Amino acid sequence: MTNIILRGCNGKMGQVITQMVEEDENTVIVAGIDLSANRMNKYPVYHSFFQCNVKADVIIDFSSPKNIGEMLEFAMQKRIGIVLCTTGFSKEDLEMIDRASTVIPILRSANMSMGINLILKLVQEAAILLSEAGFDIEIVEKHHNKKLDAPSGTALALADAMNEVLNNEYGYKYDRSLDRKEREKKQIGISAVRGGTIVGEHEVIFAGTDEVIEIKHTAYSKAIFAKGAVQAAKFLPGKTAGMYQMSDVIG
Ligand SMILES: NC(=O)c1ccc[n+]([C@@H]2O[C@H](COP(=O)([O-])OP(=O)(O)OC[C@H]3O[C@@H](n4cnc5c(N)ncnc54)[C@H](O)[C@@H]3O)[C@@H](O)[C@H]2O)c1
Ligand SMILES: O=C(O)C1=N[C@H](C(=O)O)CCC1
């Protein structure tokens, strides 16, 4: 049995995870952490980790970057791993997360779906071949109107994955409205659309002369993210300290 503390338990993803874990006989949520108290849960919910002294095997986090230090401290003290699904971290937050990963196992993934984790590899192969052939790379992501961060963590992860195989020579361009010049060659454009209840769409566009190749992922429900997070929560306990990725879980 995997005992989980769920941070962000009263949010949209927190509630999908809560239901999924209830239907899974090998996992249980032993406590929730949330700044808001807008839900009735079957497990105890604390405002912060400072109030929580519940024994667990792993933390799943779908909340916000706020007070990230508090969760890292708790996990290091208890020597338990974190499945970090929150997006929108600052450079300083990411450095703090890296430092904590020298003490505990941390699996950070901006997108827990199997599809996106497959696409991360496909776009790397495409980027190598198509950049050599002179294609420009653009990413368009679309999400619901409640999303706080932009561009999405997934769009940045897709850009980082491609940049990694392009010797990190590409810069990211989020806004062209003030430019009066041609597009730079070694650039990945990233555009964010927000509206309605769109669960999540990511499209990587390779635009060449007279031809365009598009690799697209559409999420039709939040369950695809929850499923990956629960799988990761089962995978992490007992692992040595370090940073892990979804590819370590799903191969
Ligand atoms: N990795 C993935 O696959 C994936 C998928 C979906 C969403 N996300 C990310 O997960 C996060 C949450 O998404 P959501 O749609 O559930 O948002 P949401 O706003 O519906 O829920 C967030 C919940 O976290 C709580 N919260 C915020 N800051 C907190 C803190 N410091 N301590 C405790 N509780 C806190 C809020 O009160 C809220 O209940 C976002 O960063 C989003 O981008 C990641
Ligand atoms: O709904 C969200 O918020 C999502 N956030 C992740 C991101 O920022 O990439 C993954 C998709 C859903």
From TrEMBL:
<comment type="pathway">
    <text>Amino-acid biosynthesis; L-lysine biosynthesis via DAP pathway; (S)-tetrahydrodipicolinate from L-aspartate: step 4/4.</text>
</comment>
<keyword id="KW-0560">Oxidoreductase</keyword>
<feature type="binding site">
    <location>
        <begin position="8"/>
        <end position="13"/>
    </location>
    <ligand>
        <name>NAD(+)</name>
    </ligand>
</feature>
<dbReference type="InterPro" id="IPR023940">
    <property type="entry name" value="DHDPR_bac"/>
</dbReference>
<feature type="binding site">
    <location>
        <begin position="109"/>
        <end position="112"/>
    </location>
    <ligand>
        <name>NAD(+)</name>
    </ligand>
</feature>
<keyword id="KW-0521">NADP</keyword>
<comment type="similarity">
    <text>Belongs to the DapB family.</text>
</comment>
<keyword id="KW-0028">Amino-acid biosynthesis</keyword>
<dbReference type="InterPro" id="IPR000846">
    <property type="entry name" value="DapB_N"/>
</dbReference>
<comment type="function">
    <text>Catalyzes the conversion of 4-hydroxy-tetrahydrodipicolinate (HTPA) to tetrahydrodipicolinate.</text>
</comment>
<comment type="subunit">
    <text>Homotetramer.</text>
</comment>
<dbReference type="GO" id="GO:0009089">
    <property type="term" value="P:lysine biosynthetic process via diaminopimelate"/>
</dbReference>
<feature type="binding site">
    <location>
        <begin position="153"/>
        <end position="154"/>
    </location>
    <ligand>
        <name>(S)-2,3,4,5-tetrahydrodipicolinate</name>
    </ligand>
</feature>
<feature type="active site" description="Proton donor">
    <location>
        <position position="147"/>
    </location>
</feature>
<dbReference type="GO" id="GO:0008839">
    <property type="term" value="F:4-hydroxy-tetrahydrodipicolinate reductase"/>
</dbReference>
<protein>
    <recommendedName>
        <fullName>4-hydroxy-tetrahydrodipicolinate reductase</fullName>
        <ecNumber>1.17.1.8</ecNumber>
    </recommendedName>
</protein>
<keyword id="KW-0220">Diaminopimelate biosynthesis</keyword>
<dbReference type="InterPro" id="IPR036291">
    <property type="entry name" value="NAD(P)-bd_dom_sf"/>
</dbReference>
<dbReference type="GO" id="GO:0050661">
    <property type="term" value="F:NADP binding"/>
</dbReference>
<dbReference type="GO" id="GO:0016726">
    <property type="term" value="F:oxidoreductase activity, acting on CH or CH2 groups, NAD or NADP as acceptor"/>
</dbReference>
<feature type="binding site">
    <location>
        <position position="34"/>
    </location>
    <ligand>
        <name>NAD(+)</name>
    </ligand>
</feature>
<keyword id="KW-0520">NAD</keyword>
<dbReference type="GO" id="GO:0019877">
    <property type="term" value="P:diaminopimelate biosynthetic process"/>
</dbReference>
<dbReference type="GO" id="GO:0051287">
    <property type="term" value="F:NAD binding"/>
</dbReference>
<keyword id="KW-0963">Cytoplasm</keyword>
<dbReference type="Pfam" id="PF01113">
    <property type="entry name" value="DapB_N"/>
</dbReference>
<feature type="domain" description="Dihydrodipicolinate reductase C-terminal">
    <location>
        <begin position="115"/>
        <end position="250"/>
    </location>
</feature>
<feature type="binding site">
    <location>
        <begin position="85"/>
        <end position="87"/>
    </location>
    <ligand>
        <name>NAD(+)</name>
    </ligand>
</feature>
<feature type="binding site">
    <location>
        <position position="144"/>
    </location>
    <ligand>
        <name>(S)-2,3,4,5-tetrahydrodipicolinate</name>
    </ligand>
</feature>
<dbReference type="InterPro" id="IPR022664">
    <property type="entry name" value="DapB_N_CS"/>
</dbReference>
<keyword id="KW-0457">Lysine biosynthesis</keyword>
<feature type="active site" description="Proton donor/acceptor">
    <location>
        <position position="143"/>
    </location>
</feature>
<dbReference type="GO" id="GO:0005829">
    <property type="term" value="C:cytosol"/>
</dbReference>
<dbReference type="InterPro" id="IPR022663">
    <property type="entry name" value="DapB_C"/>
</dbReference>
<feature type="domain" description="Dihydrodipicolinate reductase N-terminal">
    <location>
        <begin position="3"/>
        <end position="112"/>
    </location>
</feature>
<dbReference type="Pfam" id="PF05173">
    <property type="entry name" value="DapB_C"/>
</dbReference>
